[in-house]
Amino acid sequence: MARKHGRGMAACWYGIARTATVDRASAFAEIDDGGTVKVLTGVTEIGEGILTVLAQIAAEEVGVRPQDVTIGDNDTARSPEAAHAGATRQTYMIGNVVAMACSEARQRLAEVIAKQWDVDVDLIETANGEIWARGTNHRMTMSDAVHCAKSKGVVPVGSGSFGTDTTGLDPVDGSGRPWQAYVYGCQVAEVEVDTITGEVQVLGMWAAHDVGRAVNPRGVEGQIEGGIVQALGQGLMEDYQLQNGHTTTPGFAKYILPTSLDVPRITSIIVEDPDPIGRLGVKGIGEPAMVPTIPAIMNAIYDAVGVRITSLPASPEKVLEAIKRKEAETRQHAMQAAE
Amino acid sequence: MSELRIEATINGRKVKRTAQPHQRLLDFLRDDLHLTGAKEGCGAGECGTCSVFVDGVLKKSCLVPVGKAQGTNIETVESLAMGNDLSVLQQAFHKAGASQCGYCIPGMVMAATAAMRANPFAGREEIKERLGGNICRCTGYQKIIDAVELARDVQNGRLPISALAELDQEDGKFIGANIRRLDAPSKVSGALKYAADMTMPNMLHLQVLRSPHPHARIVSIDTSQAEAMDGVEGVITCADVPGEDGFGVFVHDQPIMARDKVRYVGEAVAAVASEDPVIARRALEKIKVVYEPLPALFDIDAAMAKDAPVLHDYAPDNVTKHIPIRVGDIEQGFAESDLVIEETYSTQAIEHAYLEPEAGLAYVDPDGVVTVISPSQNITHHRHMLSKIIAQPINKVRFIMSPVGGGFGGKEDMIYQGMLALMAMKTRRPVRLVFTREESIASTAKRHPSRTVLKMGLMSDGRIRALQLNMICDGGAYGLSSEGVMRKAAILGAGPYNIPHLRVDTLALYTNNTPSGAFRSFGALQTQFATETTLDMAAERLGLDPFEIRRVNAMRNGATTHTKQKLKSVSLLRVLEAAAKGSNWEAGIPTSRGDTRTDMGGEGLRPACTLGARFETIEATEPQSEVA
Ligand code: FES
Ligand code: FES
C-alpha cells in the first residue's frame, strides 16, 4: 500500500501580551454627534481583525452598533500610546482599554440624561443606538442624547489605561511573572503519507484553543486556520536557505509556500476560560494557533509510517529517506531473527 | 528607447496614453492610471496579487509587457464593484471573513471571479485548483474557499441573497457575534491604500545599495559620481545620521546604514533618491564602496568556536542572549526516572512571506515634524528610536501606521524607516521606498533556525520527573528580537506540565547570516516542537495514549509554572478534552497504529489530492426561493 494514514496530536501553552516586562496600552473615546462613537488608540489592524473586534467592544459598551464606531488613528501624533501590534496582545490589551474608555464616556452621558429625566443613573440602559431608563417611559436615541448632553455643556468622553502586573526573569534561575494571562491549546492532525514519493498531505486538523472569550468567533477561526497553514508550511515545505551568507531561495519560485491545494480541512473548537483580571475576560489567539501544529503533524507521520522526523521540514526526500532507512532496519532485524 | 502609444479599454473606458517600453502592465495600471487594486507581491508571476483580466482572460499583470495591452480590453478589480455595489463574490468574501490583511484579496477576488465564470457550478476541490496560482499568507485559504462556495450558491439560487447580509443583534450584544469585518469592503474592492499605493506631490523614489559581502570592513564609500548624476536629488550614507545611530527591538546594535562594517549580505549601505526610480537604481551603480572582506561565520558551531571572529565588540563570545531557567536538581531528577529519552531536533529559517513587501513614505511637515508612514508593527518604539537617531525631540517625530499587508512579526524591525526619514530631511521632499520581493527576502528578519537537545526523564506511570532543554539558535548578523525570542522559547519550552526538576537554556548567537527576528510564536514554536514530539515517544515507550500522558502531567488550577509563578485558572484539561472529543480521537498507544485505527477517514477531512480528480461539478439544482 503506497498511501498510509495516521493521526497525531500535540498540546501547547502561550503567554498573552509582552513578555517579562510591564505591558500597557491606552485609548480615548468620545460619543459623537449622531450617536456615533470615536475611538482613538495607538495601534490597530495588521490583518487579524482587531478593528472589528474593537468596534464590537465599543458598540456593546456604549450601546450603539459596530458600524457606528470609527477607530483612529495608528498615529503617534494623534492617538495615545498602545505599544505594538504583536505578542498576541491586541484583543487583550487594546480590547480592555477601549472597553474602559467607552464605559467612562457612556457613564458621562448617562449622568446627564439621568439628571434630565430625574431618575437614578443606575436605571439608564443603552443598546443599539437607544438610551432609556429601566421601569420608566423615558427613551430616546443616542443621537438625541448626545445633542442633549452638548446643550448642557457636556461632551461625553472617556479614557482608559491598562497595565499588566508582571516582572522580568531572575538572571540565574529564571523565576518571575512573565505574563498575567496564559492560554492553552491542543491540535490533532490526520495525514496521508505516500510511501513511494515521501509526500505528506495533511487532510484534517482539529484545533481546540482557549481564547478567554471570543469577541468574534469567525475571526478566531481565521487566526487558527491561518496559523495552522503557516505552521504546515514550516513543517512540510518552507526552507530559507543560505550558501556562504547568500540566499539560494531569493523568490517565491524557490521559497515554496502552501497554496490552496496544500491545506487541510480545519475544524476549530473554541474554548472559553475567561481572564479574571481584564475587564472583558478576553485573552488571545494569534500566535498560539500555530504552536502545536508541527508536532501534531510529525506525530501523525509516525503513526502512519513509523518514522520520526526531528529535523524540519519533513520534505518528501527526508520522509522517503527515513522510510527507506526504517525498511532496511526492519529487514535486518528480520534476518537476524531468522538466523 | 522610444515611447509606446497604448490604446486600450480599461474598466469600460477608452484610454489613450504613452508608456515606457520597460513598463509592465502592472506598472502602467498602478503608476500611470492610479489603479492600485492590483498589487505587486512578487513581480515574478508566483503570487497572483497582480491578477487582472486581459480580453476576459485572467493574467498576472506583472508578467505582461505594457505593449501587449495595445488594443485589448482590460478589467481590474476596480471594475467589479462599479456603482459602489460589491459583486456577489465580493459580498461573499465580506460575509465569510475571507480577508485578513487583504493584500492578496484583490487578486484572489479576480481569480475567484475567473473560476466562477469558467464553471459557475465548480465544486470545492475545483475551486481550490482554480485558486492554486494565488498565494495568501494570512487566512489558510479555508474562508476564501468558503466564500467562493457561498457566492456560487447564491448565484445559482441555492441560497438566498440574504445569506450575504449581516446578522441582526437585536439585544445590542456584539461581543461573541460573528460581525462581518468592517474593513473587508475596502479590501475586497481594492480601494484600501497600502504604503506602496500612496503618492505625494513632488515625491522622490528611494533605492538602496546593499552589501554583497557577508562580512567586510568598509574602507571607503565614494558617492560623488552618483550625486553628480542628472536626476539624482540626494544620496545618503551613515555619515548623514545626526544622532545615535542604532536600532533593534532589544539591543540597538544595527545602524540605519552600515557603519565601518557590513555584517550580512543585503545589509543597507547607502541610498539614492530621484524622481525616477530607474535613475535612482542606475545611480546605485555609481557609488563606489571599497570593502575589505573579513572571515565570516555561517553557523552556530563556527560562532561558538574558540578564536571565532567577533562580530560585535560588545559581545566578545558572539552571544546575543542566553536565558536560563532552573528548578530543582536536574541530575537527581534523571537518577530517579524510570525512562530517559534524549533526542536532537532542528528547525530551519523561515521567511515571513507577507504578501506586502516593505514600503514606506516619509516627509517633513510644515512644522518640521519628520513623519514616516509605513506598515510598522511598532510605531511607538520606532518613534523613540528615530528621535535619538535624528537627534530630535520626540514630538518632532511622527509615525503613522499604514495598513499592514501581513506582518507576523516581520514588520517590528525599523529596517528601512530610518533611511526614509534621513532622505526626507536631506531633500525636504516626500520620499517613498518600495522593496522588491527579492530585497524583502534577502534583507529582513527570519524565524530563528534552531538546534535543540531535549532530554526527558519519566516515571513508569508517565509523570515527567526531569526535563533538560538546550536550544541554540542562529540569530544572524544583528540582535533584532533575538533576546525576546530566547526568553519566550525558554519560559514556554517545557510545556504546560508539572516538572519537578528542570534545566532550560536558550541561546542566540551572532553569525553573518540574514538576521533572525520576531516571527509569530516567537521561539515557543521551536522548543515546544521538541517537547511535544518527545512526549509522543515517551507515550509509546510507556504504553500510554498521547492524550493520557499529557493529562497525567498537565498543570491544573493553582499550578506553579517553571518560572515559579502561581497560576489561577488553567484550561489545559478542558482544551485536551475538547480536542479529543472534537476529533473523535480513539485512545491508544502511539505505536504506528495508523493501519488499525478506526477514528480516521471521518468528518472534517479534505479529499487527498490525486491529479485530475478535482474537477467535479456540483449538481445544478432548481433555484430556491428566498426565505423571509
Ligand atoms: S504574480 Fe504578479 S506580483 Fe506576484
Ligand atoms: S489576507 Fe491573504 S495575504 Fe493577507
Keyphrases for this structure?
heterodimer; A: 339 residues; alpha+beta; Aldehyde Oxidoreductase, domain 4; 13 strands; elongated; B: 628 residues; Ubiquitin-like (UB roll); DNA polymerase, domain 1; 5-stranded mixed β-sheet; 17 helices; 21% strand; globular; disordered C terminus; binds FE2/S2 (inorganic) cluster
Description:
- The complex is a heterodimer of chains A (339) and B (628).
- Chain A has 339 residues and is of the alpha+beta class.
- Chain A has two domains: 3-15 and 180-331, Aldehyde Oxidoreductase, domain 4 (2-Layer Sandwich); 18-163, Aldehyde Oxidoreductase, domain 4 (2-Layer Sandwich).
- In chain A, 32% of the residues lie in helices and 25% in strands.
- Chain A has helices at 50-62, 90-117, 142-151, 217-236, 293-305, 316-338, and strands spanning 3-15, 24-32, 36-41, 69-73, 124-127, 130-133, 139-141, 157-163, 182-194, 200-210, 242-243, 246-247, 265-271.
- In chain A, a hairpin with a 2-residue loop joins strand 5 and strand 6 (130-133).
- Chain A is elongated and about 100 Å long.
- Among the domains of chain B are: 4-79, Ubiquitin-like (UB roll) (Roll); 88-170 and 178-192, [2Fe-2S]-binding domain (DNA polymerase, domain 1), CATH 1.10.150; 546-626, no CATH class.
- Chain B contains 17 helices and 22 strands.
- Classes of the chains: A alpha+beta (339), B alpha+beta (628).
- The interface between A and B is large, with 142 and 157 residues.
- The structure holds FE2/S2 (inorganic) cluster (2 copies).
- One FE2/S2 (inorganic) cluster (FES) is lined by residues 99-105, 136-139, 355, 406 of chain B.
